[in-house]
Amino acid sequence: MFVYNPHLRQELETLLQAECFFCHRFRASAFDVERYRYALILCDAGLVGEGLHLLDSVAPSRTQERSLKKATIRHIPVVENGNNTTTTTTAATTTPAMSESVSDVAGLHRWVSNTLIKYGRDPTAVMNAAQQQTRKNGPRASGLAETADSTTTTGEVLSRDAATYDIRNDIVKRALKDLSSGLVGVGAHCPHCDAISPRITSKDSIYFFHFGQKAYISHNVETAKVLSPDDVKMWEEENALHGRRRTYFSSGRARQHIKALCTNEASLLALLFPSLGAPTFSGVDRQNSAAAITDPNHHSAMEGGLATKKIFRVFFLDRLPVPPLPLRLQSGVEADSATCLLYTSDAADEEDSVDLGGRRIIKKKKKK
Q1: Coil, helix or strand at residue 199
Q2: What is the DSSP string of 304-339?
Q3: Are the beta carbons of 229 and 221 closer than 8 angstroms?
Q4: Residue 28: which H helix or E strand, with range?
Q5: Distances (CA, A) of 362 to 217, 346, 366
């Protein structure tokens, strides 16, 4: 039994809506994922304008596919023998010139590398810093540490300032919005497993999922083969038992989904949530925490830190502290059974003499 972290409820719901319910990857195409990843890499390299230019000039894959299918009729005036005549030509609708040459992941990589070289950045060092951030979150991994080049000062490769942070946060919000709903609509097929994911909703801090149409369920069972008839029957019986139309999405299942997503999409999640799982500071070295951040050679104050594949733990609380029995008997603290499932050994020894909150139950003797 896991409890959702109340500080990350909105982000958790967004990620559950963005991931494929079956293969646990972003439902957007690989091109769209890399498009936002490279934009954030450019921002972290201090090239905020180029990062925004990348998103504005390179259309998402879905938009490019529509542009190729649609054609517009353009009327071009042609001068013949001094007389203006109008001829009709058919041309495909296109986006700006940059998006014509950048239509795949390889093209994105080439354009970003050329841009970094243009502004005097080393593409290898910048990409290595992004890979380091994927392995370990925190200030050192997010580009504020030293690079492979010993002559490079801290923050020279991945420099940031207050304005960069604001623009970067806007890009992150835009990415989360597009990945959850903007780039993939309801009933869209996953580009990785061809499945149709259910819609994730929440009510009273409880998550539910539903497919909406029986045709989506049939596709997942017969075509994509990611669902079994037994699973569908079990969900229907559970919903009928509780008198609801949507299926309960347990916290344990949600944790498994986010855990798999952090494993499969670690490269982008490390850039979307660079501070989750960051190293903390011990009580002994807490007074030197500022020095630990600014000094790349100071490591003693840094405690642990989670790799991107393990930041799913931050979204959940797997333990809820329960006050010891004497304290609960004195203060009358109650523990709600819906949110706390931990029992102390003292309370277990008392058997039915105490309630779940630890308060002693005094039974009145019946008068004879």
Answers
A1: strand
A2: ----GGGGGGGGEE-------HHHHHHH-----TTT
A3: yes
A4: none
A5: 55, 17, 13
Q: Provide the terminal-to-terminal Cα distance of the chain, rounded to the nearest Å.
A: 46
Give the model confidence (pLDDT) of 114-137 as tens digits: 999 999 999 999 998 888 766 655
Stated pTM of the model: 0.70
Lowest mean pLDDT among 135-139, 228-232, 254-258: 135-139
- Cβ 26 vs Cβ 265: under 8 Å: yes
What DSSP letter does each residue of 71-128 carry, written as one string?
A: EEEEEEEEEETTEEEEEEEEEE----HHHHH--SHHHHHHHHHHHHHHTT--HHHHHH
Helix axes 30-44, 61-69, angle to 10 degrees: 130
CA dist., res. 94 & res. 185, Å (int)? 23
Beta bridge partners of 72: 91
Alpha helices by DSSP H, the chain: 9-18, 30-44, 48-57, 61-69, 97-101, 105-118, 123-135, 162-177, 214-218, 229-242, 251-264, 266-272, 289-294, 325-331, 345-349
Residue 53 contacts residue 119 (beta carbons within 8 Å): no
Query: Which amino acid makes up residue 265?
Result: E
CA atoms in the 13 A half-sphere facing the CB of 293:
11
